[in-house]
Amino acid sequence: MTTSLEGKTFVLGVGAQKAGTTWLYDHLDRTPGIELSPIKELHFFDTWYLGGPQAMKELRQRSRAEGGRIAHNYSAEKAARLLAILDRSLMLDFDRYFAHFERIGDPSSPFVGEITPAYALLSAENFGEIKRACNDRGMQVKVVFLMREPVDRMRSAARMTVATKGAESFEDTYRRLLSMRPHVDRGRYEKQVPALREVFGDDLYVTFYETFFGGGTAEFDRLVDFLGVERVAPDLAHRVHTYAMEARDLPAELVRQAAETYAPTFAFVDAEFGDQVPAAWAARGGAGRGRRRAATVGG
User: What's the confidence (pLDDT) of residue 293?
Assistant: First the structure.
């Protein structure tokens, strides 16, 4: 299959949710040579694989509705997003999905891609089909995955939910998210990392949110080397989403319950990444005991 994407690298960010993916999107979007979708979080593959035909229809309907709102208050600055939304409203299959990147991809730009944290919930079989679809169009795939300590990741998700919806208290929201499997599964790195490794191997970059944003640029520089893109000085202290409830804490018993829920996750990360596990994880999950090996974070 010959397309205008042939020879490019497809950069796919798959999460985790609340692990700095909006910062990553903003930075890569201003990096020369990369053409990211104007929509951060296209949600095509998770809707395709996990939602079914009705969910695909609803995604297209939401896209048309959003496109109508933008068109009603149109400005030149909104043009790229409006066209991307129109593309998404027509995404009936993989061909239409990749047609979006054919349209936005500058012929001189070696990279195209998108970031949707919900893709972390996909299976190895799903990822294999995505990789083959890219390869069939002449593209290599590079996948980026940032892991955030799962108890804190859910805390951030609860803050976002309260800030954007505001129907419940912070504590009640956290309890509700912790009781819902889809939300818990977003932090199940013991399932996500093996599935990604199985399919993408050395074309997978995995790191810790706490390491990436915790000071210094060593991990950022490793990402630049992994992707092979031009280095643009990062502002790692910049936070894209901040909420007024940032300092609010949770009852100790609820934190313990969350840590127990994620005990298999902490055990997996401890065994796989050894001494590279950030201190925040070790303090929460008891990491450091019974380490099997100290793996390279990027693999």
Answer: 38
Give the pLDDT score at 291: 42
Tokens read off for 45: 């593959």
User: What is the pLDDT confidence band of residue 248, given thresholds at 50, 70 and 90?
Assistant: low
25 pLDDT higher than 80: yes
- pLDDT at residue 289 greater than cutoff 50: no
Q: What six digits make up the tokens of 167?
A: 């129907």
| Neighbouring residues of 36: CB distance < 8 A, sequence distance ≥ 6 | 11, 25, 28, 29, 112, 113, 114, 115
- Residue at token pair 């995995």: 206
In the chain, helix, strand, coil percent, each to 5? 55, 10, 35
Tokens matching residue 59: 């995604």
Contact 155, 175 (CB under 8 A): no
Residue 256 DSSP symbol: H
Q: Is the dihedral angle over the CA atoms 299, 123, 51, 85 positive or is it negative?
A: positive
- Domain 9-32+105-285 classification at class level: alpha beta
Amino acid at 194: P
Q: CB-based burial of residue 167 (10 Å sphere; 0-12 exposed, 13-18 middle, 19+ buried)?
A: exposed
Quick one: tokens of 278? Answer: 């950030």
Paired with 113 in beta bridges are 11, 36
DSSP per-residue codes, 29-58: HTSTTEEE-SSS---HHHIIIIIHHHHHHH
